[in-house]
Amino acid sequence: MRPSGASILACLLWITGIEAYFGIDYHAKASYFNFQVNGNSLYVFGLNVAANGDIYFHMSGPVIHTWLGIGFGSEMKDALMIIAYPSANGLNTTISTRLGSGHTEPVYTPDFEIINIYNDTYAPNADTVTDRGTGTIISHAMCRNCTTWPTGSLDLHSTEQPMIFALGPSQHFGSDSVEASIPRHSLYGQFTVDMTKATNYTGWYGRVPAPNIPDFIYPPNDTSFASFGTSPSFNVVTMSNPMPTAHALLMCAAFVLIFPMGAVVMQFLRKTLWHGAIQIVGFVAVLAGFGVGINVARQYNKSKNFSSGHQVLGLIILAGLLIQLGLGLLHHAIFVRTKQPTIIGRIHFFLGPSIMLLGLINIGVGFNFAGNSRMNIPYAIVVVAIALIIAGSTGCLVYCRSRRKYKPEPPHPQFGQQPGYSDYEMPRQPTFGEQPPEAYEPPTPYSPIGHFTIDSPYTPLSAYTPVTPKTWKKEDITNWPHWPHAKDDYQ
Ligand code: HEM
Ligand code: HEM
Ligand code: HEM
């Protein structure tokens, strides 16, 4: 076989000792795994094990994937994992060693020492995120004591040592903490490594695997890797995790849309049954969101103990809603029998808005908790817009009502009998204040919309002095229930 130009060049460089400068180190054996999609490298892992058991590794992949992980083992459970993600400022790489216990976030363990290696000639971007934090996460380090761990070990003589790898979802994420909570992967898979090609059995020589693209590229490029000494990937799965989004959507639907709608229906239309039905739908949405929340919570270290502020507040809100629902139903059941306002209704009236406010606050807290604080801006805009719509329509309603103040009417004019009569209003239902309300859950002076059993159009049979808030006498209001609970149920 005729030697290729590249091998002759490599040989010459090796003899002259220049090879180290150009990034090919013949003393440090190495295996390489390059996972590609459509010809583009998505994940690279290079491994060299020194005779003393130190593991030198290079791991790189596009920063759009948030984090890159390698696991020694055939599945998450019992694997020793090394995970790399951008630092808090997005420019450097944080490397974290973790132990897996199943299909949940692996837990950081300080038993292994990671030593970042910055000074290889062929790795100018070692342990940084290239292109000012927008390119490739490059982790370039040595892991000490990493060949054995409490639940497994690397078989340095195996030609098929099982390995797993994974990439995070496309999300903004960065932290300097080795214990940072990472979001669940969007892609994972397995491969095997021929450890005999990666291990220096004699001498302590160890070195982070250099780029191994067969033809020299100058200047040396720290992402030019080709698979060598590893199997192709298998059991590769791409998965999205819709659960946190579903949790957020259900909670937002309940607290931003459904509950306010139910309150508005009660406030303006006085339809208790509609109100009850709408609020029960909201409550079911919160229950479903809660179920999804528990599922999500179990997967992450930050939430598996249910002790975070977001979760504790969430549980308080859920308990409050349960009480609120019970109070609403109880008040209504008593009211239907007695036709009297109840203290239970009063509590329900004040507890409702408080819980709704807490729910709105907890949505913001939830976005922060999920590392999604950027969502708080659009969220705040939507909440303010909805609040303005409700306030605006309330204002309009109050204004329209005040313009329709009742004036005692002259006898009905026949059409054409009173030319020029300009102050004539169509007969209409009187507004509150014009005559004393009925005893049964009448609207109070503060009720925005009155509800009367008098048929409309209505014209008083005989003239009377309208009672306005200014002219009320004590006896006019003796029978009124007290504010604000006079405006209880209307069927
Ligand atoms: C927040 C962190 C993580 C969570 C919540 C998580 C969760 C899960 C879940 C739920 C599955 C099962 C998927 C299915 O049924 O299709 C799974 C599988 C898998 N994950 Fe993870 N994972 C995390 C981190 C990692 C890391 C860091 C790696 C690799 C370094 C990894 C590698 C794998 C692999 C290879 C599988 C398939 C093999 C197996 O069943 O264990 N995961 N993971
Ligand atoms: C978790 C579910 C519920 C929530 C969050 C809730 C919330 C509220 C709120 C915010 C108000 C004040 C509305 C206003 O400004 O006028 C209110 C009033 C009221 N709700 Fe509910 N409600 C719920 C369930 C129910 C149910 C199931 C019923 C009965 C069918 C009910 C009956 C009433 C009544 C009668 C009032 C008027 C109380 C008064 O003015 O004293 N509610 N509710
Ligand atoms: C009224 C109560 C609650 C509201 C309004 C609420 C809302 C939210 C929101 C908006 C997020 C952000 C999700 C994202 O950006 O992907 C979130 C995250 C989260 N919530 Fe809740 N939540 C509530 C209760 C709970 C409860 C009771 C639990 C657990 C028992 C829980 C567990 C979680 C977890 C684990 C996350 C983080 C998800 C991640 O990191 O991807 N939540 N919540």
TrEMBL record:
Q: Which Pfam families match?
A: CDH-cyt, Cytochrom_B561
What UniProt keywords are attached to this protein's entry?
Electron transport, Membrane, Signal, Transmembrane, Transmembrane helix, Transport
Q: Which residues form the Cytochrome b561 domain?
A: 246-367
Gene Ontology cellular component terms for the protein in this record: membrane
Keyword Transmembrane helix in annotation = yes
Read off the InterPro entries from this record: Cellobiose_DH-like_cyt, Cyt_b561/ferric_Rdtase_TM, DOMON_domain
Residues making up the signal peptide according to the UniProt record: 1-20
Q: Which CDD domains match?
A: CDH_like_cytochrome, Cyt_b561_FRRS1_like
Q: Where are the transmembrane segments?
A: 248-269, 276-297, 312-335, 347-371, 377-400
Q: Which region ranges are annotated with the description Disordered?
A: 408-444
Location(s) in or outside the cell:
Membrane
Q: Does the keyword Membrane apply?
A: yes
Residue intervals of the DOMON domain: 67-168
**PANTHER family attached to this UniProt entry:** CYTOCHROME B561 DOMAIN-CONTAINING PROTEIN-RELATED (PTHR47797:SF1), DEHYDROGENASE, PUTATIVE (AFU_ORTHOLOGUE AFUA_8G05805)-RELATED (PTHR47797)
In Swiss-Prot or TrEMBL terms, this protein is called Cytochrome b561 domain-containing protein
Native species of this protein? Extremus antarcticus
Q: What is the lineage of its organism?
A: Eukaryota, Fungi, Dikarya, Ascomycota, Pezizomycotina
